[in-house]
Amino acid sequence: MFYSIKELVEQAQNHYQGSVAKLMIATEVELTGRSESEIIHIMERNLEVMLASVSDGLNDQKSVSGLTGGDALKLDHYIQSGNTLSEKTILTAARNAMAVNEQNAKMGLVCATPTAGSAGCIPAIISTAIEKLQLSHDEQLDFLFVAGAFGLVIANNASISGAEGGCQAEVGSAAAMGAAAITLAAGGTAYQASQAIAFVIKNLLGLVCDPVAGLVEVPCVKRNAMGASFALVAADMALAGIESKIPVDEVVDAMYQVGKAMPTAFKETAEGGLAATPTGRRYAQEIFGGI
Predict the structure, then answer these.
(1) Cα 144 to chain center, whole Å?
(2) CB within 10 Å: which end of the chain, N or C, has fewer?
(3) Between 137-157 and 5-15, two packed helices, what is the crossing angle to 10 degrees?
(4) In whole angstroms, how large is the CA radius of gyration of the chain?
(5) pTM higher than 0.85 for the full model?
């Protein structure tokens, strides 16, 4: 068992030939009492749901509230036009993240990774990695075990809950997990993966959770898109050999401290931020005013 990212990296290097995925599987066996085959079977189901949520979300159907739906398809059409400013891989990740969160808003099946509000990031990053890196089925599973390993440390030492730590703890954690996983999938080391986590979290510190009308739609859908694309940039920075001046475990602790200090208005209560704007309040009145 590991209790910090530093310990995670050291144990993977010293006992599992650098494989964070193997370390995480062993940890799951230890924590749950399940067999390795059972754990892999569960992760295969998670992978199946994630990839399906990307494809199922690519349509113009609106959510029940009418706040979201169809933007992933718009971005898809834009990508296909070939006249984009950003590189295709980045935009594909953004599109896929929006598709998953729009699917969630339409009450479709998603895999909360680590939460429903941030469920678009990791499916977006892994689906992009599959296309970009031609990952095999086993490599796809390894990707998810890697994300889970780093996510376990973040959850235990900071938070993955918007109600506890703001959106830095939801989209920030999800994007960081995905950044670490794709760093390793692209041939990086466990240490480089840890640096990608640091880049994501320290640049999303203080991100508030302010769902308009209290629904996981606005601004959640587009935040997942930005989180997924940011994860790819962070991974590239780490793969380039860039290092965080602040150790990653201190970055995670800083996120915890920022979350503790954050006013409750910015922690999923829909009492501050975008939810408290005139338009945000109007949407809430239109959706729930008659209830």
Answers:
(1) 11
(2) C
(3) 140
(4) 18
(5) yes
Residue 261's CB is within 10 A of a number of other CB atoms, namely 8
CA dist., res. 287 & res. 200, Å (int) = 34
Whether the CB-CB separation of 190 and 184 falls below 8 Å is answered with: yes
What domains lie within the chain, and their CATH numbers? 5-288 (1.10.4100)
Distance, CA of 79 to chain centre: 22
Over residues 73-111, the pLDDT tens digits come to: 999 999 999 999 999 999 999 999 999 999 999 999 999
Residues 224 and 98: their CA atoms lie apart, in Å, by 7
Contacts of 227 (CB under 8 A, 6+ apart): 97, 118, 120, 121, 171, 172, 174, 175, 178, 200, 204
SS3 content of the chain, % helix, strand, coil (to 5): 70, 0, 30
